[in-house]
Design goal:
Layout lengths: L13 E8 L4 H12 L4 E6 L6 E6 L3 H13 L4 E8 L12
Antiparallel strand pairs: 1-3, 1-4, 2-3
């Protein structure tokens, strides 16, 4: 996998991945978040409410790298029960973002 640094990511290279995780303790959530955040393609990890448990923002060099990331880093993990992928076509910062 050839991840792009966030500053070089093109809009189609930013991806929103939603994970359904099988984690039952706060310590397990922290371990999982910390481990996945260390991957070079991962920009941000969010533990969220709703039908999914985690929201990841990742940057990959193309569809093949994204597929490889999902297959090797997520789908193969016992803690991950499912994923849903969304491409980010455009991002507009809000007034309070400081940029």
């Amino acid at each position: 996998m050839t991840p792009l640094p966030p500053k070089n990511a093109r809009p189609l290279d930013e991806v929103d991945l939603r994970l359904l995780a099988l984690l039952q303790r706060d310590a397990a959530v922290s371990r999982f978040s910390g481990a996945i955040a260390r991957h070079p393609a991962v920009l941000n990890v969010y533990f969220v409410s709703g039908s999914y448990d985690f929201l990841l923002h990742v940057a990959c060099s193309g569809p093949e790298d994204l597929r490889d990331f999902i297959a090797t880093e997520l789908s193969g993990k016992l803690q991950v029960a499912g994923t849903e992928t969304h491409l980010i076509f455009e991002h507009t910062r809000g007034a309070s973002s400081g940029e």
